[in-house]
Specification:
homodimer, mainly alpha, Helix Hairpins, two-stranded antiparallel ribbon, two-stranded antiparallel sheet
């Protein structure tokens, strides 16, 4: 293991995060860019102190490891990826923690506990969107923007990692990308990591700028436009508003639906678009299957809302009549929000009919496209599992017939089949174990009446980076009431799910650390 | 497809079932073998009429198809197996149905509906043990013995099928058996189906006779001894008593624990025992893992009972103090009963702590050994899945290292890996879909307040041939309140699970019926 180089890269990450904190403090307090509203000296000091601390540690890590070999093997790369999120969350949590301790009036604020801050910061960097805050608006705006900035950074990191970096290392979904790219460029998006990464940056930043402008035109102020855009393109789901997106009108909600979808599809497809081949999008198996699932599920949700509910409770607490347009707006918003693993809410789906909730839980597991900012199993794996099961059924009664499983024009080899089934089963096993574990830890929690719906959806909502679940972690509830051990488990689940399990799980296998 | 030969074999099955009905009527009413208690002329007539009807249809099927080719291909064998259970349950349901219609006082009895009778009869032949009866003892003893006889027959059929017949056809778990038989006889239990089948018959009948005698010595009357033995060695779980095994003392409960285990381990192992190689049992991977799971889970159950419950509710309605011996007796009984997929109950585990219930639900999925009368995923597959996942995790960071997955001394090939993962995922997918489906069908059922615990455990308790679940299908509840569509779905689930999915699922694929 080349620990020196890993540490030097982590030092660089700390420097980047510190710089962004510094810039944010400058924009807020130096330029007064968002007006005088909600300026809080403690938040400013917390940001500046965290930036300084991060910079000192980062420079230290960087300087102390200079001059080593600058190569990363497969195992080093996995360790670096895992540590980027695990240690990055430590630094990103610092502003919350310092703010709560600097301000004497926040004696009972959740951010007084570092575990809470770490949970919130991991939830940000993994684009999950689960929060420990009951009253979000009690936190100064500068910290709330930092909170949404962590999602934007996390989303960018994931896209670059999964589309540009990992495929080049032969880790993860490399083969999937190869298969999914029809036409002459069978070799993945691009041969050069740097070029691909730059392209993804450009796409990501362009989507962000476009959405901010459209949100502003739709009537939101700069702060709401920027903060919500950060968590939309990252499919994160943090909102600086207590009522989440339910506080805005239908126009803004529709804009967010569109950009959640844009964040939830494979970023490699934008490469095809930029090369002037829009038709290839239509031929993409995963994209087509994603829309089939989204339309089918939305229809079930809308139908059961119209049939079984006269009124819908909005996240602001108001109720609206279940007219067809209302059912469609909130049904589609929630379907897209959960499937892309954003987790924004406009309505309290905790009170929705069983079938609508069952569809949402299916979306929690499925997630969006591979190579997007969304989490979960990913639509392409769901598709593959179905194809493999069908071929296995035929093999039972016709073992002599060998019919290859194909996606687009590529054949799925046995290794990829095994890897896909193992991945999905791995998610299910981790889900089963942790849902029981969370229940057992919290069964005597004095703040809530524990039920399995809560522990099960809390597990899946963190593992698949959704954010809200059902029961006590529903869209108008929060995660603040969990005990510290549960919050640590869920922070780990977020990292596990975000990095597609293996980058984290391998750290726990002795063989990973052996030098042979 | 050689339909003629399939129909002739099904005709033979009808003749066998009819003969057994006839013998039972003769033993009960001709010889008065079980005394005068509970003799009911309507039940006698129902048995005789069903036997006659079955015999006529059976002879007709047999005669009308004489002279055809007497060979079965793979697809024909699968069709025959599926039809044996699906059509066999039609005939086995007949005595219940006729009895309810012959007796004028049974206007509101569940058996007035053929769907209920079919559910009960499928539950018997698949050794599930789920019942539509709220008051079991209101049914005459002769019919109750027939009910338990269906489980005994079903258990025998499954063992012969999965240990003797299918491996010889190269279907199903053939490779597993090969691997699991250490020593020189690597070629499975025996090369000749007939010899193996006869050996299994002998083992099964011997276990039955021994248990009947021990139960009789322990103080039960002949009827209770025979009826309970029938459903113990078959790991079925039907009891002719309303209070199930909770009505008996600790001695009888311990005897039943032992024989449930004997029914839940691979019958091919008895072959090793008979050949004087008891040590090979100890080296059997699946058997060892079964005991590890059983001991670990029982410890969790017993511990949580002692910690969280002062009293245990027995299935008779009485309560006992949670002393350590009581917790151990009922904890181990329930663990063994659920893991072997028997489904007998001594205590109402619906009221047990969450962790104990979670362990029981895990057992519902896992089941006992392959090649036994138990259902579920089977312990060997759980073992295999864990080994495959571990090897897949290592493959992520060391793709160049090829470390074969082994059981005993055999290497698991890729086909078997894929098949195993696909099987387990198949169970989980069917479970997920049907648990939602049952909820949606029953959500307006006026008899119960529907909850997901009920629909989920009803699905798994039928798919894995357990019998009781949790919630409204708990150990002191019943399945009578479900609507007819749900009962038909659950009857199908029992057949699906009993025949290890594929024998039934293939019937729904168009390619199965194509003649190419």
């Amino acid at each position: 293991m080349n620990f020196r180089y890993i540490i030097s890269r982590l030092g660089l990450l700390f420097l980047v995060l510190s710089t962004i904190m510094l810039v944010m403090a400058a924009v807020f307090y130096g330029l007064h860019a968002f007006g005088e509203h909600g300026l809080d000296p403690h938040a400013r000091n917390a940001l500046l102190m965290s930036a300084t601390l991060g910079a000192i540690v980062g420079v230290g890590m960087w300087l102390s490891t200079r001059g080593g070999a600058r190569t990363l093997g497969r195992r080093e790369a996995m360790l670096l990826v895992a540590m980027s999120w695990i240690l990055g969350a430590f630094l990103a949590a610092m502003p919350y923690f310092l703010w709560a301790h600097l301000a004497p009036e926040h004696l009972n604020h959740p951010f007084r506990s570092y575990v809470n801050c770490y949970f919130e910061s991991m939830s940000g960097l993994t684009t999950t969107g689960a929060t420990v805050l009951a009253d979000i608006e009690a936190v100064p705006r500068s910290l709330l923007l930092w909170r949404n900035m962590t999602q934007w950074l996390g989303g960018l990191g994931i896209v670059v990692l999964f589309v540009a970096v990992l495929p080049s290392l032969g880790v993860g979904a490399k083969k999937l990308y190869k298969l999914e790219m029809p036409g002459p460029t069978k070799e993945g998006v691009q041969p050069h990591i740097r070029d691909t990464a730059r392209l993804l940056w450009i796409v990501y930043v362009s989507l962000t700028i476009v959405q901010i402008i459209i949100m502003r035109i739709a009537g939101l102020d700069w702060f709401d436009s920027i903060a919500h855009t950060f968590s939309t393109v990252a499919t994160g789901g943090f909102s600086p508003r207590n009522g989440s997106v339910g506080e805005f009108g239908a126009a803004v909600q529709i804009i967010i639906i569109v950009f959640m979808i844009l964040g939830g599809i494979n970023f490699a497809l934008y490469y095809q678009l930029l090369r002037g081949r829009p038709l290839l999008l239509w031929r993409d198996t995963e994209l087509r299957f994603l829309f089939v699932l989204l339309l089918g599920g939305s229809a079930l949700i809308i139908g059961s809302l119209i049939l079984h509910r006269d009124e819908l409770v909005i996240t602001t607490g108001e109720t609206v009549t279940t007219t067809v347009p209302n059912a469609m707006l909130h049904g589609v918003f929630q379907a897209v929000s959960i499937m892309t693993t954003s987790g924004f809410a406009t309505a309290d789906f905790n009170a929705w009919p069983f079938l609508a909730q069952a569809v949402l839980v299916f979306y929690m597991f499925s997630g969006g496209s591979a190579g997007s900012t969304s989490g979960g199993i990913k639509v392409i794996r769901i598709w593959l599992v179905l194809k493999i099961l069908l071929s296995e059924i035929e093999r039972i009664f016709r073992p002599q017939v060998i019919r290859p499983v194909k996606i687009a024009k590529g054949t799925i080899d046995t290794d990829l089949k095994l890897g896909t089934l193992a991945y999905v089963l791995g998610i299910i096993i981790i889900f089963a174990i942790c849902s029981v574990l969370l229940f057992v830890i919290e069964q005597n929690n004095p703040q809530v009446e524990m039920d399995y719906t809560t522990s099960a959806t809390a597990t899946i909502a963190t593992l698949c980076t959704i954010g809200p679940g059902l029961g006590q972690v529903g869209p108008v509830e929060h995660y603040g009431w969990f005990s510290a051990p549960s919050k640590i488990i869920m922070s780990l689940l977020m990292a596990l799910g975000r990095l597609e399990l293996f980058a984290i799980i391998v750290l726990f296998t002795p063989r990973f650390w052996r030098t042979d």
